[in-house]
Design a protein that fits this description.
The structure holds two protein chains of two kinds. Chain A is built from no helices and eleven strands. By secondary structure, chain A is mainly β. Chain A has a single domain, classed as Immunoglobulin-like (Sandwich), CATH 2.60.40. In chain B, 35% of the residues are buried. The chains are: A mainly beta, B mainly beta. The interface between A and B is medium-sized, with 25 and 29 residues.
């Protein structure tokens, strides 16, 4: 079954605006990761937040994690056209497995 | 430092043919993973190598898929015979080894191979 689910499925904003994407997951985790996929290209790792962290920043990215609600959000501030991509949250399975489970992604379109 | 590379970038084959995908991980990364995204659905795990050993192949869909990592360096994923439902993007990722108690290894993904089965 799908571990992570992103919301919304699609988001369209104007350049300069902020974009917020949400991710919900089902089981307990020790970290959550966000990836970006530009059209036709591979997945780029954006940020990892550990389960004992509540917020993390990287450049124009801000990630929050609420383990009580089993949810995370990714905020992109001052968006640019180059931010247009699909964004995925991913969590490792519980136990000793290292595989990542991905959500279905949010397609972000930033209009110039 | 070179990232994860995959070859070919695109492959178009007919149903029943064989295709072999290749992945070169980041040098020094013991962990190598295969994932795929089929028909715009979510990205799903296929299998995980630690060096040359298959650590977890629970995501392999059936016995038409065979993955190898001889020598613990590059890996190949062979689909034989290919079926229509195998079309999708196949991603490879690699990561450094991390202690189990701190499983925060970042997986670095390659650009993927887009497979089209006609």
């Amino acid at each position: 079954s799908q571990q992570g689910e992103e919301d919304p499925q699609a988001l369209s904003i104007q350049e300069g605006e902020n974009a917020t994407m949400n991710c919900s997951y089902k089981t307990s985790i020790n970290n959550l990761q966000w990836y970006r996929q530009n059209s036709g290209r591979g997945l780029v790792h954006l940020i990892l937040i550990r389960s004992n962290e509540r917020e993390k920043h990287s450049g124009r990215l801000r990630v929050t994690l609420d383990t009580s609600k089993k949810s995370s959000s990714l905020l992109i501030t001052a968006s640019r056209a180059a931010d247009t991509a699909s964004y995925f949250c991913a969590t490792p399975l519980s136990g000793s497995a290292r595989q990542l489970t991905f959500g279905s992604g949010t397609q972000l379109t930033v209009l110039p | 430092e070179a990232g994860v590379t995959q070859f070919p970038s695109h492959s178009v084959i007919e149903k029943g043919q064989t295709v072999t995908l290749r992945c070169d991980p980041i040098s020094g990364h013991d962990n190598l993973y295969w994932y795929r995204r089929v028909m715009g659905k979510e990205i799903k795990f296929l299998l995980h190598f630690v060096k040359e050993s298959k650590q977890d192949e629970s995501g392999m869909p059936n016995n038409r898929f065979l993955a190898e990592r001889t020598g613990g360096t590059y890996s190949t994923l062979k689909v034989q015979p290919a079926e229509l439902e195998d079309s999708g993007v196949y991603f490879c990722a690699s990561s450094q080894d991390q202690p189990l108690r701190d499983r925060t290894d970042t997986q670095y993904f390659g650009p993927g191979t887009r497979l089209t089965v006609l």
